[in-house]
Records
---
Amino acid sequence: MSLDPERRMQFLFQLRSRGVTDARVLDAMERIDRGAFVRGIFADRAYEDMPLPIPCGQTISQPSVVGLMTQALDVSPRDKVLEVGAGSGYQAAILSLLARRVYSVDRHRRLAQSAQETMESLGISNVTVLASDGSRGLPDQAPFDRILVTAAAEDPPGPLLAQLRIGGIMVLPVGQSDHVQRLIKVTRGEDGVDYEELRAVRFVPLIEGMGQE
Ligand code: SAH
């Protein structure tokens, strides 16, 4: 991280004080420079624990929420992970250090392309960012060991549940976009699905179909 030691300590302290305690997640978040994913006038706020605007009217999530979601996903080094909602690519870059392979999709071509370029500039080679409607999952690469959704749906989308391996975990915000949403952890078992409610969150909505740009 291209940060002075004091800001780096503060960044990690904020994460810990908001419940991010998993050592592997904290290590990954220390190694991935959030500043590389935020452009323009907000760049110098990259190390504050707040969501920030990115192009196409979207947002890069708050670091502590990224940490809590990553922690809840319980990724292991052999996992193939799908992220729905690539946005800036920040979350996918963190997953790249914890998983074997990461596919991340965004309905905005412009965001998908720029996130892929950022991966390349950082030398991250196990992430593929694609422009695609993630509400349908990514059937070509399914099944997935883990699925992370970073935009809010009213209910867990059926195609995503279907593309989750038995024993797999999906973490996603659910609820209407203009209300407080709940972050939930879905575990797919042999004969059914188990839901655990984690906390209240606020995400941009999961929208079906491709975006304009
Ligand atoms: N994870 C991102 C932040 C995501 S913001 C980061 O680390 O920066 C949510 C993203 O979900 C937006 O970029 C939005 O375009 C995308 N999105 C919304 N609906 C989608 C859909 N159906 N398929 C794919 N992406 C979607």
---
Amino acid sequence: MLEIIPSGKILGATVAGLDLGQPLNDADFGAVRSALGEYGVLRFPKQQLTAQQVATFSARFGKLEINVANAFQVAGLPEVMVLSNMVENGKPIGMSDAGQSWHTDMSYSRTIAFANVLYGIRIPRRNGRTLGNTEFCSMHAAYDGLPGDLKRRLEGKTVLHDFNKFWEMMRREKGSPRPPLTDAQRKAKPPVSHPIFLEHPLTGRKVLYANPGYSMRINELPQTESDEILAFLFEHQTQPAYRYAHVWEEGDLMLWEDIGTIHNAVADYGPDEPRLIQRCQVMASAFGEHFAQ
Ligand code: OGA
Ligand code: MN
């Protein structure tokens, strides 16, 4: 029997009693989907899954992104990416610094992400405590908490998002070994614009759709005003009152929606503290024009 246990915090619930290795029946799928709207971030503990099962579960929620540029894919399953700091035979087995700053996945893409699925295979641990939390902020709360005059001023405005912003920030501020994007890579991912407020497809409520990782400017405002307001929004949306931290256990499968949340992978573990995660990204293509331009 499926049981949904809310975290009692601003986001997050545990879904117990499901083996995600088995096909979800329609009733359970409906319950999970509505819990995803209500809680934003869902934890399915104690799973034992193959990469194929992770992909099959993820694909129930929409079309899966295949990252053509990324080498860290499960053999034969390009829709499943490997996130890891582990090295085998002198070679990294996964992307080692994915998501290590506040962002939401694929806001830089014409078709944005609807949801992420991350399956925790190895989780770093020190003195009995797990490391490498994934933190989230609620963008429903961030919208609701905006001053009324700012909500009115920003209504109908759009934000430019650029893949290269996060990439360069990782190189500049985090000592990432990523090389600069080539001209061809930059051409393949040109900046795109999305409305600053989206109506969330699961809740019907408005969310703030901007994030420190990829958002460059508010198109309709002069540069200095755009800079000031974005700086305010980045501070506002990451305030502690809107935060929820997921503390991983091995065997956790995490499903979160990317339209009403932003997230941050906490890099508090070392190279000898292995972390291994499989990831699928579900695209928002099913939800219409704002989400799939
Ligand atoms: C990502 C990401 C979070 C994590 O892969 O985009 O944000 O905790 N990962 O690994
Ligand atoms: Mn991410």
---
Amino acid sequence: MDFKGKTVLVTGAGKGIGRAIAEGLAARGANVVALTRSEADLETLKAEIGCRTIAVDLADAAATAAAASEAGPVDFLVNNAGTTALDSFLDVSVETMNHLLAVNTIAPMIMSQAYARDRIARGLKGAIVNVSSVSSFIGFADHAAYCASKGALDAMTRVMANELGRQGIRVNAVNPTVTLTPMAVKAWSDPAKSAGMLNRIPLGRFADPKDVADVVLYLLGNEAGMINGIAMPVDGGFMIN
Ligand code: NDP
């Protein structure tokens, strides 16, 4: 996986999985454009890997569209930024549902439209990876808005793969299980709940951010040149249980 001379836009690059993706890409020669909300994270990442940085709240569609055009042109796109909320189906509010859809589904749509329009206009091939979740496939209690937003992201990924694939732009999703990042600590801090999840993972551990980042890099690169439209679990076998 060699990204020398390639420019890659990574959303949510400040922390967790997105940061591991940005670090992995930079280590393989990529010029990273890091886009996230917290300026402080962008500063530390810039000091670490020398990336270009853009601060934006992806819940704001107009600001996201402006950031997408500021970020381009790039060779590859990783839609990684995401957020969660812990509400049962009966309690989830319209505001929460709208917020998670805005960040987890609509922002990837806006970013991908800008990316793909540029690639197509210039007659160039490309690749997009959307960071989804096993929550797309499983009805986890208290994750109504999150599961819905990731299910929608996977559905959109398939349409993108169908339409954009015909223009030489491959689009795939990765679907991690619990991955040990700040967001996972928020969602899985209850030991009883995490023990139940761990028991369902044959490999006996949660994912590390690098486990997910390595798969994202593979799907972006030439080695995955015939892979288009998949939702790839990165889950230690969780999905077979
Ligand atoms: P983290 O919370 O560790 O990092 C998320 C990153 O996305 C942060 O840099 C965060 O910035 C950014 N982000 C979140 N909301 C916004 C926003 N509105 N605008 C701009 N940037 C934003 O999460 P993870 O690394 O765990 O998650 C990365 C992706 O992986 C997400 O899509 C998540 O759904 C998915 N995932 C994670 C799993 C896990 O167990 N960790 C499991 C399965 C999927 P800031 O901190 O400034 O808000």
